[in-house]
Design a protein that fits this description.
273 residues; Jelly Rolls; 2 domains; five-stranded antiparallel β-sheet; 37% strand
Length: 273
């Protein structure tokens, strides 16, 4: 009777091992992206491991060749299983881009629902000439998205031109302390006013140009021809409601410079610290 019990026990252990193996493979090829199913696959592997070892090591009366074959089969399954387990770290690491990881403290303009336009016009209705602007958007893996604005402002007019990010719904920047702008001016005379406008159409702006330097109102870091300008929001945009911003951008006028000029914006970020 005891021999029959041993045989039945070994058969059950092999059946459990086979079931666990099939369930584990099914999870790996079917639901491997779910944390819960990964944990279940790991549980089935442990059951499979215990069942195989029970048969291979626990019963000495079986021929050595069968025990070796069982252990070999265990290794054949174990190696790819733990290679798959190793991908959990890579999947978890790659599932969140850097911008999303830093989302608590840094908010990029590209992550907000919006559309971008270039515009031009004339404030004085008696003048026939007006400012014009052409927008070119470029993208590269190293530089990200760049917005090139080629604009023209006539001499004898009150023309204006610029670039605007129009949000699809009002944005709340009240929790952020700074706005960081990466901008490149095509020549010494080019310049613009970086502005923010709320839903009541009130706006505040800060003058940007090739000649600006760090001061109490902003910090300017220069990298070749590119300026990285960091502006405190609370002091520089204190006349608007930062919790309901409708659009932001760069506006330029004939009072800044006339003729053909260019500026390039390659990044706008809002920083909490």
């Amino acid at each position: 009777m005891s021999e029959l019990i041993k045989v039945l026990r070994d058969i059950v252990s092999l059946i459990v091992a086979l079931f666990s193996l099939v369930a584990m493979i099914g999870i790996i090829f079917g639901l491997s992206q779910s944390q819960q199913w990964r944990a279940l696959a790991l549980l089935f592997y442990i059951i499979f491991l215990v069942s195989i070892l029970w048969f291979a090591i626990g019963e000495k009366e079986y021929k050595l060749i069968w025990r070796y074959l069982t252990v070999g089969f265990l290794f054949v399954i174990t190696i790819p299983f733990f290679i798959w387990v190793g991908t959990w770290i890579n999947l978890q690491g790659n599932s969140l881009p850097i911008a999303e990881i830093e989302n608590d403290d840094i908010l990029s303009i590209e992550s907000l629902p919006s559309y971008v336009i270039a515009y031009g016009g004339e404030d004085n209705l008696d003048d026939t000439s007006e400012g014009t602007a052409i927008l070119t958007i470029i993208y590269g893996e190293d530089m990200g998205t760049g917005y090139i604005v080629d604009y023209y402002l006539p001499d004898a007019s009150d023309g204006y031109a610029g670039l605007a990010y129009k949000f699809l719904e009002p944005q709340d920047f009240s929790d952020y302390k700074f706005v960081e702008i990466k901008i490149d001016f095509g020549d010494e005379r080019a310049g613009c006013d970086f502005y923010m406008k709320d839903i009541s159409n009130k706006s505040d702006s800060v003058r940007l140009s090739n000649t600006i330097q760090s001061n109490t109102e902003m910090n300017v870091d220069i990298f070749g021809t590119t300026q990285l300008v960091t502006i405190p929001l609370s002091s520089s945009f204190d006349n608007i409601n930062l919790s309901v911003i409708h659009d932001i951008g760069c506006n330029t006028y004939t009072s800044i410079s006339t003729g053909n000029h260019t500026f390039i914006i390659s990044g706008i970020k809002f920083l909490k610290k």
